[in-house]
Amino acid sequence: MVACRQGLQWDWCVQLLAEMRTQSLRPSATAFSMCASACGRAAQWRSSVAALRAMEDDGLARSLKTWSAAMSGCGEAQEWEAALALLWEADRSMQLDTMAWNAAMAACRKRAWEVTLALLSAMAKKLTPSVVSLALCAEVCHWRQALALLEDAGRLAVRPDLVLVNATAASAARGGAWEAALALAAQLPARQLKPDIVMVNTVLAGFSASSHWAQTLALLAQLPRQSLRPKSVTFNTAMSACLRASQWHLVSELFEEMQRRQLKASDSTVNALCGAFERRTAWQAALHCAFGFAPARGIKLSSLSLAPVVSACRKAAQWAQVLELLRHMEASSLALDDCFRAARMASEMESGDLPTALARHREQPRVADRGAWRSRKFGHLDLHQLQPQEACLAVCCALLDAVEQPRPLPAAGLTLVTGKGSHSPGGEGLLQPAVQQFLREMSIETLKLPNPGRLAIPRRELEAFLSKKSREARRSERRE
């Protein structure tokens, strides 16, 4: 039983326990606890709870360790309601310890963080929470609440450790409060704590989310003085920060340093490198990174990895390469979102395969119908409630509508309502630049209107585009 538990062979634990009971060998409470623990670690929560119930059937007292193992199993399977039910059941029959409360809080933190905080309050009325209890809550709640929990540690006679401070800093970093995360790192000596690389990575994550590339590099430079060795995730986070801040040349430098240190690359490394190549329109380098560098290191490509590769090829007008990439994605069972579908139809149009683009357009869900070319207000395309990838698809569909069903063009051309981006992160619009870039790759220029939330495709641009597509359609018909 011990060997099976250590080897994560939960099914063997269940089988051994069943055989012991079948052969009239009375399993001990320890055997039941080990079985519940093995099942819990494998997210087999029903089997874990079954072991707990079987103890009662055999007349054995259920220990808090077994209750905690069953609750942890529920947590691994993200069955937080079941874990909560077990906690209240145990609370009615015995005095719970911090381990049991912590197991329940850990089970709730991913799906119901508010319940995790409520459990901490309930726990504090009966016994003193541990530093683990506070860290579990700090990890999932709003960063201001996490800071308050850290301050409450003294009142609760709990001495904060590095795990609690790291959890609080991580909460601040996720909330975009990188200054708070940096302040927590600076306070470590006063708390008689020594920073570790986990804390550094946490602060770097805050810098990355806020595109503070200079602070990222400064923090990296301080690591030798603190006797800390950066890991792969350290460099990946720094590369992400530089990429977000359009400092793509620094991404390559950080990667070279990563290689000098012989650190293992990951999918995050590939994503950052492909993103940097996309900014430089280095489509061949992006392809090599995705289909040479990554496979050689056993890194599996995702849609996130291939998106900048597709974009780099589009920017370089490598339409055939775009279509080949998208075929590879489909063959690899990678889902094509609106952005990829728009890229495919645009590439088919630009490569001269207008019939295929039109046929694909007719099969598309009518995302463009929300305010498209054929809407009540002709020549007016309302995109501001769409995501950038949806907006690009809607624009592509509108242009294909115009090719398929010619009609007199409005004197003002096509007006695109993108919104100002006031509600976007940082107050910077993402929709308008995405639409502009998409049209630019199709050799269609736009004009900014006095209203900053609108763009226009001038009539002359539309006429040139439609005339070109009409000629291509006629050539295609003659070939057929």
UniProtKB/TrEMBL annotation:
Signal sequence bounds: none
SUPFAM superfamilies: SMR domain-like (SSF160443)
PPR repeat ranges, renumbered to this chain: 231-265
Gene3D superfamilies: 3.30.1370.110, Tetratricopeptide repeat domain
InterPro entries recorded: PPR_rpt (IPR002885), Smr_dom (IPR002625), Smr_dom_sf (IPR036063), TPR-like_helical_dom_sf (IPR011990)
Repeat recorded as keyword: yes
Alphabetical UniProt keywords: Repeat
Domain Smr, first and last residues per copy: 381-463
Lineage: superkingdom: Eukaryota
Name assigned to this protein: Smr domain-containing protein
